[in-house]
């Protein structure tokens, strides 16, 4: 996914106002689409971590953290770890912390680091969902966000 040049995350230089507006518009479109899908289907398409994913996907689309392997792989891996720990050890602060730590280490080990996905084990422990959570909202939502961002930037480049 390629977009107009932008300063690296954390750079001291502020991006151009037009670049900021495009990032905001993209995030709005992506989050509105997931919200509309959730409302229209009655299914959960939204994770709290998706808001932070949109910052990377639309604000810093060329970042390694915004690539499909990281966005999709990071979300799926982190939610999987959260579900494994929840269903193996039960709810509680200690298994939640262990799940978060393991998810972080596994994302680093597998080169699927997507920082927003680091909150997924916490979300899993707060919601205590079943295994279907891995498919919807996690995998389907992450794929949808990445496809929307990729299409958005591809269209704007033309």
Task: List its traits.
mainly alpha; globular; 158 residues; 68% helix; 6 helices
Task: Write up this protein.
The chain is mostly helical. It has one domain (17-157). 68% of the residues lie in helices and 0% in strands. The chain contains six helices and no strands. The radius of gyration is 16 Å and the shape is globular. The two termini are 13 Å apart.
Strand content: under 5%
Shape, please?
globular
Number of strands: 0
Helix count equals 6
Give the topology string: H per helix, E per strand: HHHHHH
- Outline the low-pLDDT stretches: none
Derived structural class:
mainly alpha
Largest pleated sheet: none
List the helices and strands and how they pair.
Blueprint: H1 17-41, H2 49-59, H3 68-89, H4 93-110, H5 120-127, H6 135-157
Helix pairs in contact: 1-2, 1-6, 2-6, 3-4, 3-5, 3-6, 4-5
Produce a short descriptive summary.
This protein has 158 residues and is mainly α. Helices cover 68% and strands 0% of the residues.
């Amino acid at each position: 996914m390629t977009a107009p040049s932008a300063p690296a995350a954390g750079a001291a230089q502020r991006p151009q106002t037009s670049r900021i507006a495009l990032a905001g518009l993209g995030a709005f479109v992506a989050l509105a689409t997931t919200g509309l899908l959730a409302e229209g289907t009655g299914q959960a398409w939204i994770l709290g971590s998706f808001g932070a994913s949109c910052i990377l996907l639309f604000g810093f689309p060329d970042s390694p953290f915004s690539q499909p392997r990281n966005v999709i792989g990071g979300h799926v891996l982190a939610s999987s770890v959260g579900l494994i720990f929840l269903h193996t050890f039960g709810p509680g602060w200690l298994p939640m912390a262990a799940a978060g730590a393991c998810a972080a280490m596994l994302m680093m080990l597998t080169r699927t680091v997507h920082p927003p996905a680091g909150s997924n084990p916490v979300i899993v422990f707060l919601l205590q969902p079943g295994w279907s959570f891995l498919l919807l909202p996690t995998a389907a939502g992450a794929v949808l966000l990445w496809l929307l961002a990729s299409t958005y930037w591809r269209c704007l480049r033309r």
